[in-house]
Design a protein that fits this description.
single chain; 169 residues; globular; two-stranded antiparallel ribbon; alpha+beta
Length: 169
C-alpha cells in the first residue's frame, strides 16, 4: 500500500492525540498508532488459505487502536505482531480504498472479537460506528462520538477529528 496522505494522517493523529493521554491518565490500557499489526484470532472457517490449503495469518493494522489494560499480553507488547484483536479500532478511509477492502477489514475485526469500530470518512466528514450487538450509527459535523463501554468516558467531537483538514478532498 502507498503511504497515506496528509488528511488521512491528520485525522488519525488527532484521534490518537486525544485517546492516548485519556487512556494513560486513567490506566485503562494502551492506545496504539497505525502500522501496529494485530494478529487476529479468526475462527478456522474464516481464515484465509494459501494456494496449498494451509491457513494464513490475518494481520490488520488499524489507523488507531486501543487495548484494555487487562488484555495487554503478559510481560507487555513484544517485537512481533500483537497476538489479539484490539478492543477498539478506527479506520480512516483513503481515496484509493474500495468499499470491499473496508468491509473485509471490518469483517475481520468483528469476527476476531473487536467490540468497537469507527470508520472515519474525511471526504464526507462522517463517522460510522459499529458496536457489538448494536445497529450501525452515523455521526456528522456537530455530533460527539464516545467510547461506550469499551473506553468509558472518552468522547471526541466529529469536528475535532477534522480540525486542520481541507474539506475539498
Amino acid at each position: 500500500m502507498s503511504p497515506a496522505g496528509g488528511r488521512h494522517g491528520v485525522v488519525g493523529a488527532d484521534l490518537l492525540d486525544r485517546l492516548g493521554p485519556y487512556v494513560r491518565a486513567r490506566r485503562l490500557g494502551r492506545a496504539l498508532p497505525d502500522n501496529v499489526g494485530f494478529l487476529l484470532p479468526l475462527p478456522s472457517e474464516l481464515q484465509r488459505r494459501s494456494p496449498d490449503g494451509e491457513p494464513r495469518d490475518t494481520v490488520r493494522s488499524p489507523d488507531v487502536a486501543f487495548v484494555r489494560r487487562d488484555r495487554i499480553p503478559p510481560g507487555g507488547f513484544g517485537r512481533g505482531w500483537v497476538p489479539l484483536a484490539p478492543d477498539f479500532a478506527a479506520e480512516v478511509l483513503s481515496p484509493d480504498e474500495t468499499t470491499s477492502d473496508t468491509n473485509e477489514k471490518l469483517d475481520d475485526f468483528r469476527a476476531a472479537g473487536t467490540p468497537l469500530l469507527w470508520v472515519i470518512d474525511p471526504d464526507k466528514r462522517i463517522v460510522a460506528v459499529y458496536a457489538a450487538d448494536s445497529p450501525t450509527r452515523w455521526f456528522r459535523t456537530g455530533d460527539t462520538l464516545d467510547g461506550g463501554d469499551v473506553v468509558p468516558g472518552f468522547s471526541i467531537s466529529v469536528d475535532d477529528l477534522f480540525e486542520d483538514v481541507a474539506a475539498d478532498g
